[in-house]
Write a structure and sequence with these properties.
Blueprint lengths: L1 E8 L3 H13 L5 E5 L6 H9 L4 E2 L4 H4 L7 H10 L2 H10 L4 E3 L4 E4 L4 H14 L4 E3 L3 E6 L4 E5 L3 E9 L5 H9 L4 E7 L1 E4 L12 E8 L5 E8 L3 E3 L1 H9 L1 H6 L3 E7 L6 H14 L15 H10 L13 H12 L1 E6 L1 E3 L5 E6 L4 E2 L4 E2 L5 E3 L13 H20 L1
Parallel strand pairs: 1-2, 1-9, 2-6, 9-21
Antiparallel strand pairs: 3-5, 4-5, 7-8, 8-9, 10-18, 11-14, 11-17, 12-13, 12-15, 13-14, 15-16, 19-20
Helix pairs in contact: 1-13, 2-6, 4-13, 10-12
Length: about 400
């Protein structure tokens, strides 16, 4: 039996950040990280295409929380204590300089996730924090003054236990046995599978658009990317994040309404088309897009409206104009399934948030049990926001434990 002051379950971003912050605040504490796999920090390694999207350059807590479909209200207080600016300062203090890209995402200046992994591994080595891999937790038991953690190899006891095991279903079952309510996991941040002749040969075409799920309140806007399997891009990913549960309930079978002119309505679009009919009467309709998207997409929508490749603007009938307006501002596409976005895999689900004290990240049901990262029913869109939740939760859990001991 091995005894520690604090056991961190989970060798990912949240687990390492919690352990390091505890040991730095109180070097006398015995802290250990348990990881079931043979490798640690695997999500850090693949994040941002191998560059590690550490955080986002959004420094106002009330603005930052708006990127979280689940957790917006609960994170407001924690972000006022440890926000993006604190993350930047923390990494700089540990020898890692970050840079801001045009879209606000922040990466190490090296453009390598290995920089973050090295930073964490050097810190745990310096602080004498054992990182024990291949330790699959088999049971959790709460005694009067300590936690007993049995793995496939060893029995550990610790006064404080931090769960940073992400969406591991086995851990969720154990927490349910301890009385916690677990929200079943569903995918978030995914792309839509669409087979439609209008986009069949347009792979790689990108255009700003607003998207909506038909007969639903779900809508989003942002660049839309046509792929060989359907549609992706920031607008689609936002819609999938906010609609994670609703779209799962639909079994990812629904009608997507696309407005390629963003906020322009049908009447306004018709007026614009009528002006083009008058002003460019002798020009060929399909030749050049008069709107802010690529010619190839314009030509496909013109064709889908029943307008011939050589038709001039002057020759368009009222029915042609109506059909083209419909394709532009309310094109309907049948979605049949989803695909994972790159290697990013985010789940919506986890411990129900009302059972957690967000001032301490401690369980309201079990004393000296803490949570950090994706194990909570908190998730965000892409851009460094999910990591920021891990850093903030880990920092607050560490601070709370150090105040208690």
């Amino acid at each position: 039996m091995k005894s520690f002051d604090v056991i961190i379950a989970g060798g990912g971003a949240a687990g390492f950040f919690t352990a390091i912050n505890i040991a730095e605040a109180n070097p006398k504490l015995k802290v250990a990280i348990l990881e079931r796999g043979k490798d640690v920090l695997s999500k850090v390694r693949i994040s941002g295409g191998g560059r590690c999207n550490v955080t986002h350059a959004c420094f106002v807590p009330n603005d930052l929380v708006k990127f979280y479909p689940r957790g917006e209200k609960e994170l407001r207080g924690p972000f006022n204590r440890f926000c993006s600016g604190d993350t930047i300062e923390w990494f700089e203090r540990h020898g890692v300089e970050l840079k801001i890209e045009e879209d606000g995402r922040m990466f190490p200046v090296t453009d390598s996730s290995q920089t973050i992994i090295d930073c964490f591994m050097e810190a745990v080595k310096k602080l004498n924090i054992p990182v024990l891999t291949g330790e699959s937790i088999q049971s959790l038991y709460k005694a009067e003054s300590h936690w007993k953690i049995e793995t496939n190899k060893e029995v550990f006891v610790a006064e404080h236990l931090v769960m940073a095991t992400g969406s591991n279903p086995k851990m969720w079952d154990m927490l349910a046995e301890l009385g916690h309510t677990m929200i079943p996991p569903v995918p978030s941040l995914f792309t839509f599978n669409i087979k439609d002749p209008r986009i069949k040969d347009l792979m790689g075409v990108s255009a700003p658009a607003s998207v909506k799920v038909k007969n639903s309140k779900l809508e989003a806007s942002g660049p839309l990317l046509i792929t060989h399997w359907g549609m992706s891009g920031p607008g689609i990913l936002r819609l999938s994040a906010w609609g994670a549960r609703e779209l799962a309930a639909k079994n990812y079978q629904f009608v997507l309404q696309v407005n390629w002119l963003n906020d322009m309505g049908r009447d306004e679009c018709l007026e614009a088309l009528k002006e083009l009919k008058q002003g460019q009467a002798k020009k060929t309709v399909a030749k050049q897009s008069p709107f802010n998207f690529p010619n190839r997409l314009w030509q496909s929508l013109v064709s889908a409206s029943g307008i011939g490749a050589e038709t001039r603007w002057a020759d368009l009938s009222k029915n042609h104009l109506d059909a083209l307006a419909g394709q532009l501002v309310n094109g309907e596409y049948n979605v049949n399934g989803k695909s994972t976005f790159k290697e990013e895999f985010v789940t919506a689900g986890g411990i129900i948030l009302k059972e957690v004290n967000f001032k301490t990240m401690e369980s309201k049901l079990q004393e000296n049990l803490y949570f950090a990262g994706e194990i909570l029913d908190i998730d965000a869109i892409t851009g460094g926001f999910n990591f920021q939740n891990a850093w903030t939760g880990g920092f607050i859990a560490a601070e709370s434990i150090c105040k208690k001991i």
